[in-house]
Design a protein that fits this description.
mainly alpha; 7% strand
């Protein structure tokens, strides 16, 4: 080792020891000062003393892993099954699953088409209908309304008449 580095290490060690001794001395002074201040100022916590605590070393915060494909769907459907006829509120489901409420609202908005057994029974309140109930029957979508649909019906109705 380089002699200058060795002397730096020795000096750093001596300073650390001195720092530890001064901190313990300061702690003793503060412990003696607190009862005196409480007697002088009437039992309240002393506002004048400022002890700077040691700050712990920073620890890295790991980001929450992103959910896999379809995990939200299975979690929501499972919660709806467990809830039964009572149903589930979006806020409760959000807290239970640890998911943003906007994501759950978006899922239910899409679920109207993909999962016809999921029904809205109140504001932000959904339930899963049982497949054996008569109210759970999936109805056929009605005919499309609009210009194109009307035109197609007219063309389809006119086509058999021309072929006769």
């Amino acid at each position: 080792m380089n002699p200058s580095r060795l002397s730096l290490y020795k000096e750093a060690l001596a300073l650390e020891e001195r720092k530890a001794a001064l901190e313990s001395e300061l702690a003793a002074i503060v412990s003696r000062l607190i009862p005196i201040q409480s007697q002088l100022f009437g039992g309240g916590s002393p506002a004048q003393t400022t002890v700077i605590p040691k700050t712990p070393a920073r620890t890295s915060v790991k980001a929450k892993a992103r959910a896999g494909r379809g995990e939200l769907k299975t979690a929501i459907l499972q919660a709806l099954e467990v809830a039964g006829d009572v149903g589930v509120k979006v806020a409760d489901l959000s807290k239970e699953l640890g998911v943003n409420t906007a994501n759950i609202y978006a899922w239910f908005n899409v679920a109207k088409k993909r999962h016809p057994l999921v029904k809205k029974i109140g504001p932000a309140h959904y339930q899963l209908l049982a497949a054996d109930k008569p109210s759970a029957k999936v109805t056929k979508p009605t005919r499309k309304k609009g210009r194109r649909a009307k035109r197609r019906r007219m063309v389809a109705a006119a086509a058999p008449a021309d072929s006769k």
